[in-house]
Amino acid sequence: MIDIMLDRxxxxxxxxxxxxxxxxxxxxxxxxxxxxxxxxxECWGKIKRNLPPFCYSCGRHLESKDxxxxxxxxxxxxxxxxDRAFSPCVYEGVLKKLIHAFKYEGKDxxxxxxxxLMIDFIREYNLPIEEMDYLIPLPLHKxxxxxxxxxxxxxxxxxxxxxxxxxxxxxxxxxxxxxxSQTELDINKRWLNVQGSFSIDxxxxxxxxxxxxxxxxxxxxxxxxTSSAAAATLKAAGAKIVFVLTLAx
Length: 249
Known about the structure:
Blueprint: H1 2-17, E1 34-35, E2 39-40, H2 41-44, H3 73-76, E3 84-86, H4 93-104, H5 110-124, E4 134-137, H6 142-148, H7 152-164, E5 173-175, H8 187-193, E6 198-200, H9 205-209, E7 213-220, H10 225-236, E8 241-248
Parallel strand pairs: 3-8, 4-7, 7-8
Antiparallel strand pairs: 1-2, 5-6
Helix pairs in contact: 5-7
């Protein structure tokens, strides 16, 4: 009883000194609805969802003028090595801030609430998760992993794997070349930048990859260059289908 009282007192003191605030708008969360005491429901409701119809390649919303083609204008100009990509949200506003905090500010705990967006999307649109043999988080180069201390794609994969009872393959797809960040590059340079970046750990790789369906997990799909390069490596190792699922595009 005394321990409980001390815990309450200590937690109350922490709340007084460092009140919990919304990670986006910084409002005090004490008297307003929130998601896991991390983000207020008002900000959460501002996340822009990606709505059907979807492009058969990149998964972005398909404009009415492109419906007969089933692919957006950009995807008709390029050949991707993945079979399809899906994203529950649009990379802007609130979600862009959340992903930046998740990746670059060490807030790995955001993986839990962000993964719910992917889980809900899979269920709402009946993505064929049951047909996937493995989840593979898009790997970071070891230098980037040391800098960041975690791989955001791996964290998202853990929650998805737990929810849908799917195995994760780590350390099979490797990122052996440290390339410059894609952020500041134009479209053509992004494609060149990631060429030859990925390889397969050849220790028993046939057992893991050959004739298997893979769901490749990452946080954001922009041009699709990185995911396509990773998918090309998986296909070369014998993967049958490679789908891509990201938080946003």
